[in-house]
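We modelled each protein-ligand pair independently. The example shown here corresponds to the 3R-hydroxydecanoyl-coenzyme A entry; the chain sequence is given first, followed by the ligand as SMILES.
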Amino acid sequence: MPIDAAKALAAPPRTAEISWTPKDVQLYHLGIGAGVPATDPGELRYTLESRLHVLPSFATVAGDRPPGVIGALSMPGVDVDLARVLHGGQALTVHRPLPVRGTATATARITAVYDKGTAAVLVLRTEAADADGPLWTEEARIFVRGEGGWGGDRGPSARTAAPSGAASAGTPAGEPDVTVDRPVREDQALLYRLSGDDNPLHADPDFARRAGFERPVLHGLCTYGLTLKTVVDRLLAGEVTRVRSYAARFAGVAYPGETLRIRLWGHPSRQGGGTVRATVTAVERGEAPVLADTVVECG
Ligand SMILES: CCCCCCC[C@@H](O)CC(=O)SCCNC(=O)CCNC(=O)[C@H](O)C(C)(C)COP(=O)(O)OP(=O)(O)OC[C@H]1O[C@@H](n2cnc3c(N)ncnc32)[C@H](O)[C@@H]1OP(=O)(O)O
């Protein structure tokens, strides 16, 4: 059986020593579209060594954990065709601001395997700590099409109920406080993949077609990062250290070259913190959903 839930859950945690430099941070920031316009003081904090800060979602690529995304899917009990794999969701909790240069130990294990009948969902939890203690905890939900059906636990539902007054399921009620239309570069995925996720789904047209898509799709974590950057720039006065946690569900694919419409709800303050909710849709495809159930807790 390609997924053996009991074996996957019983496997010992996998530990890797990771390290990163300012160059890795800069490359990640460019990979999520930072640096436009190039001389904007706000953007220079993402691109210039002397002013560099670290967007917390850098944690999702920090250290080029060997052997990358494909390694994450070769845990004991998991033997799946990469063409059937989609990133279903991502959550991140930041315990301390991320330094521009660092070394840490990352410990990963599969904490849940859900049987959706025609798909399986794997939950991969990674904890990173350095000599001073915990740095971040992240949880990736990996959606594997065509798996499932072994009679296992169905797990939580990702079909959110619509709050009253909301336009559709997962959309916060009321008008957004900020709406940004964000053009995604045609070569964005080619840049982003240099930060470690070299899944051919994002670069190779033949592989993308085999996976059922008309052309290569944008990495879910690229959309995840560019959305967090918009929250930081528009609602947190550019202060990356105010992000405490960030969760999102990948509700539909995005393609490089599209315009993403990012809607934000929330008024976090420096004194009391607060919650920001977001949705992301693909403008040229009739606002098809891209990110849903997106919540940033801020300090
Ligand atoms: C270390 C990190 C490793 C990361 C590995 C990934 C490597 C990356 O390189 C890969 C990528 O970046 S892929 C690009 C980003 N992801 C996407 O584009 C996926 C977008 N989402 C979709 O296409 C659909 O929502 C789809 C296909 C996900 C679901 O749509 P449907 O098949 O129509 O599902 P639906 O019928 O609505 O629901 C079936 C059951 O599944 C649950 N579910 C739905 N969406 C989910 C999601 N996103 N995450 C988790 N569970 C999800 C539903 O709740 C339902 O279960 P139940 O009946 O129990 O409610």
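Residues 69, 72, 85-89, 116, 119, 121, 124, 140-143, 154, 157-159, 197, 199, 201, 217, 219-220, 249-253 surround 3R-hydroxydecanoyl-coenzyme A (CB under 6 Å).
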